[in-house]
Amino acid sequence: MDSSLIVQYGPALLRGFGVTILCWAAGCAIGLVLGFALMLLRQLPIRPLQALIRAYIEIIRGTPFLIQLFLLYSGGPSIGLRLEATTAGILGLGLYGSAYFAEIFRAGYQSVPKGQVEAALSLGMSYGAILRRVIVPGMLVSTLPAIVNMMAILTKETVVLSIITVPELMYEMQTMAAETFATFETILGMALFYWLLVEVVSRLGRRLEARVTRFLSHSSNARA
Fold first, then answer.
1. H or E element, residue 37
2. What percent of the chain is helix, strand and coil (3-state, nearest 5)?
3. Mean pLDDT of 204-209
4. Helix or strand run (H / E) with residue 66
């Protein structure tokens, strides 16, 4: 590998990596919040709303992320929605992730024993208190592995953002390859960067899962 390429393109690649992390982190945040909101709305006994949310989830999960990104970025202006490339990339990742997170949260919601919710209701707790102190803690234990896995998947989906000229890692790598014809170095460098990001996400997820489990265990012992 030519070390001069690292000196010449290193700063640009690091900037691209930073944009990748920004898009991924912001997209995950939007996806988590929107997915949780969709799960809660889906619990309401309003059939048209449930059907609408279910249709949204199935459409997002059933179509490629690339097509969704093109529709958002290139098709948005036709309905008055004009977004910069990076903004469109973040929003696209958030919408894409929200459908999967909504299903993860729905499974976690259903895994909480109904007896716990009924017991909380019998104590006169409000739905907000039950959600915060009974449902969400129970959901976290069962859904954290799936959430971390989905977040790792979204790191790899960021490569698609280069298609709409988001200056993330893939975009900078393509620029480097086009200018130097260093295809091997480009592919190897890109693989190492994404492996590093996924590894960090996985390790943080395992650490968070251990902390949540330990915290809930201490809380249960304290109540006992």
1. helix 3-42
2. 90, 0, 10
3. 84
4. helix 65-73
Neighbours of 123 (CB within 10 A): 9
Share of the chain above pLDDT 90, in %: 38
Structural tokens at position 91:
């929003």
* Residue 220 predicted with pLDDT over 60: no
In percent, how much of the chain has pLDDT > 70? 92
Q: What is the DSSP letter of 2?
A: -
**How would you label 184-207 residue by residue, b for 16+ Cβ within 10 Å and e otherwise?**
ebbeebbeebbeebeeebeeebee
Q: How many Cβ atoms sit within 10 Å of the Cβ of residue 31?
A: 24
CA distance 182 to 187: 9
Name the residue among 171, 149, 14 with its Cα closest to residue 86. Answer: 171
Question: How many whole angstroms separate alpha carbon 20 and alpha carbon 86?
Answer: 10
Cα–Cα distance for residue pair 162/88, rounded to 1 Å: 12
Domain 3-223 coded CATH 1.10.3720.10 = yes
| Average confidence score pLDDT of the chain | 86
DSSP state of 132: I
Measure the N-to-C terminal CA separation of the chain; round to a whole number of Å: 61
Whole-model pTM: value is: 0.85
Residue 219's pLDDT is what?
A: 58
Domain boundaries, the chain: 3-223
- Chain position carrying tokens 């930073």: 18
- Residue with structure tokens 């010449």? 8
